[in-house]
């Protein structure tokens, strides 16, 4: 019983490290990371629909077995490495995309947008 309580407490503690940004916090972070004002509404809409403004979201497996990570729900098939070594097109680990510091996620999302526009996301 003590172990069960300890595990529950640990789970709650780990979950508390995740962050759900308010809409205003999201806009501030997007501006800080160089997102253009003329596309700000589109980026906010994308983040709200993809991750509900949460930094810790990992999707269920997609039909091809890949997963989507973080605020922008960036896919591990092409963009981030699911190993401990940074890699793929954004040269990051998928775990780095789950950070409350969104700089790596933002840089990767902008790279994806430069190549594919908003069509790269379903949200």
TrEMBL record:
One Pfam family this sequence matches: Lys
Domain Glycosyl hydrolases family 22 (GH22) intervals: 90-108
Keywords: Antimicrobial, Bacteriolytic enzyme, Disulfide bond, Glycosidase, Hydrolase, Signal
InterPro entries hit by this protein: Glyco_hydro_22, Glyco_hydro_22_CS
Reaction equations catalysed: Hydrolysis of (1->4)-beta-linkages between N-acetylmuramic acid and N-acetyl-D-glucosamine residues in a peptidoglycan and between N-acetyl-D-glucosamine residues in chitodextrins
UniProt xrefs under CDD domains: LYZ_C_invert
EC assignment: 3.2.1.17
A single MF term (Gene Ontology): lysozyme activity
GO terms, biological process: defense response to bacterium; killing of cells of another organism
PROSITE patterns with a match to the protein in the record: GLYCOSYL_HYDROL_F22_1, GLYCOSYL_HYDROL_F22_2
Entry-linked SMART domains: LYZ1
Signal peptide: 1-18
Family the UniProt entry places it in: Belongs to the glycosyl hydrolase 22 family.
Protein name: Lysozyme
């Amino acid at each position: 019983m003590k172990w069960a309580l300890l595990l529950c407490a640990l789970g709650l503690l780990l979950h508390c490290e995740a962050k759900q940004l308010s809409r205003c916090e999201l806009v501030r972070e997007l501006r800080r990371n160089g997102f253009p004002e003329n596309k700000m509404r589109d980026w906010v809409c994308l983040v709200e629909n993809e991750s509900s403004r949460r930094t810790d979201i990992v999707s269920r497996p997609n039909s091809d077995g890949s997963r989507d990570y973080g605020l922008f729900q960036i896919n591990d098939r092409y963009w981030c490495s699911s190993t401990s070594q940074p890699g793929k097109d954004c040269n990051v680990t998928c775990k780095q995309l789950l950070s409350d510091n969104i700089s790596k996620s933002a840089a990767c999302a902008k790279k994806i947008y430069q190549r594919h526009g908003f069509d790269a996301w379903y949200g």
